[in-house]
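FW: tagging you since you asked about this chain on Friday. Here's the raw sequence from the shared folder, copied in full. Didn't touch anything.
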Amino acid sequence: MRNKLKHHENSSPIICDLSNGLNAAQVEERIDQGLTNKVAKTVTKSYFRIFFDNIFSFFNILLMGICIFMVTAGAGPGDFMFAYLLIINITLGIIQDIRARQKSDKLKVISYPSVLVLRDGEEKNIPANELVLSDLYILKNGNQIVADGTVLEGEIEVNESLITGESTNVLKKVGDSIFSGSYVTSGTAKIRTDKVGKTNYAQTLQSKAKRFKRPKSEILSTINKAFRLIGIVVIILGVAMLITYASNGQFAEDYNKTVLKFSSSLVSMMPIGMYLLTSMTLAVGVIRLAKHRMLVQELYCIETLARVDVLCLDKTGTITDGSMSLHGITPIGVADKKDIENIILSLVSATQDENPTAKALREGFKDAILLKSTSSLAFNSDRKYSAVMLNDGRCFALGAREFLPHKEQDVDRICKEYERQGYRVLILGSSKKAFLQTDKMPSVSVIAVIALADHIKEDAAENIAWFKANGVAIKIISGDNPISVAEIASRVGVENAEMYVSLEGMSLEAVKEIANKYTVFGRVSPEQKEVIIRALQEAKHTVAMTGDGVNDILALKIADCSIAMAQGSDAAKAVSHLVSMDSNFSALPNVVAEGRRVINNLQRTCSIFLIKTIFAMIITIIFLVASWISSKETYPFVQNNMYIWELLAIGFASFFLSLQPNNERIKNSFVSNVLVRSLPGGIVQAFFTMSFLTISAIFPNFLSHEGAVSMAMITLTVVSFATLIFISKPFDIYRIVLASVIGVLIVGFFTIDYFFLYSSGSGVSFFKINYSEINTNNWWLLIAIIVLAVVTYVFVNRLAVYLQNKHNKKVESL
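HL: got it, structure written out here
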């Protein structure tokens, strides 16, 4: 694969001074020529796409056509309430999408990859898209390579897995080419920029891609399938009604009335606002996460957050803050402590490592004497050690004891004692044999044991307790010694922290076998991290992974939800769904809680919308068939009949339910949770509506058709309120207040409609309800059927939930 990584033709780079880089005039000339690293890419929805998606959806276009049809029938302003609601929904959707875009773009500016460039003899950080052809930029461990180039000074190890699929590190020396899309795992080098913008290798690969592929999203998939199915049904039934009513002469007999009923049927079958509300709810989620300084790079990852039941953490940056301090040094044998300090300072200075360990050692031995070296070997996550060869011919290696071959048993005893106390332990060994990066590490003579102390975050225990209380298991995956990691994990309350294992030298097959048995994994390689994540996923867990280093990238790429820290490597941020702009682990509980709020509330609100859709489809089909038998039979309702139901129990309720905090753990699939709430409601409401209409057909002297329609509408409204009560469980203060307000509004709307409209003398009800047909002879029928409908609804819903739970237990047992 790597043989294919060859530069393509482009304008030749100019020769640049290794000490000074390009000067201002040269940079300006390149900018004028358009030779910058800018690449046209859309990181968020464009404003055009926001307006287009919110206005010209399938149902919106269909509703606009219905509006035109109704205008031809002379419909009055009160008949177009659904159109007013449509305009409000579209407006709110546009506003929320724009707010989400602005919040996201603002954070993206902060997190946009930067590069350390040398210009006019000065090093300075600039945005990666401001890099110009022939710029001299500096790469260090953890940097993502943002432009193709050539190594002019220094040596680095590069992981090209993001573009080749092979995770082995590749040594890049002076004269070697590097490619955008890969990242540095160790070392430091000066790079001449040979390709910029669209001519970069990674961009040429991307331009060959046929289409962008979204990550799997159950919500997106379910809603799209539901809309396609509903759309097909609406079109088929609409065409069938048009043909039937036209052939029966109903349009000719009473065009206006027939059009209004036909339109009401179609509008009732369409879940107006459900798609918009879904987008709005996700957009609100993005905005809320932005307030917690979390950048959402993939909108539908919020859905995954709700289902996370295992969170994989690296100790550093989550439990500890990443800073370290020197705890102590224990010389071994006759080694001189002062000489040891000089060697350590010289080693970390020669390798130019910038990891927390190297920084702590520089600070701890800052008063030591710097010795000259001839060559060095930077630390990386595969080797777990760094090395230096001094001018006097001595060669030293510093790293984990498990990765530096030695024979001193006392060293292991000292190291284990430190590890049991939670310290990170390194050994310093000397070798008589000089070694290069391509050589196998020779056995060393240990001359010192160094103990470093991690600083535990003050809120770590509180955050771990939150996840435990909310059903999220914690797994610690670290490159450090498992004994010391387990001790620190135990201090902050990680459950089963005593169940730890070292993966040093363990095969990937063996790692897969034990991945679900342990809590703390130490000495983990990047490939082993990936295997752990896969094994947890195969055990039906939804896994979130946090990381900040290049050694986390393989695991971050396959995790169901990946969260990178802004202070971490550019490469880790590039492959993650979320980026913590403050590198703050304490924001993660808010992240998971926000995901649960979004999904739980969407399940409730989608259920409310679909109840009316199911009801309207059943009634439409029944009366379509009836119209084939009798030409006088038409859909019995007009749009005004539905307004209380649509305004309060659907629109008002769903909007405010979608905003409420909701930390309940997600169970079952999105589609089953929605259907178990909506299907029984739609069927029950259709059944009792037909009961009224059937009674009026059999006993017209007892109950007229208009009276049956009026009673059905009142019953639907009451049952819809019961639906809201059922869907809102379990209750809290917010939901109690919401249900109470809606109940009061329902009573208030009917009261106003009767006393101020219908009884005013005009005999006209805004909701087109004929109250005079509900008299002393049949009012008891209304009450009896309302009570029976509510009881039946509650029973059927509980039965549906029981059957769902029983089915899930059966599946889990298998």
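FW: The CA atoms of residues 407 and 445 lie 8 Å apart.
HL: agreed, and Residues 588-629 form the longest helix (42 residues).
FW: great, closing this out.
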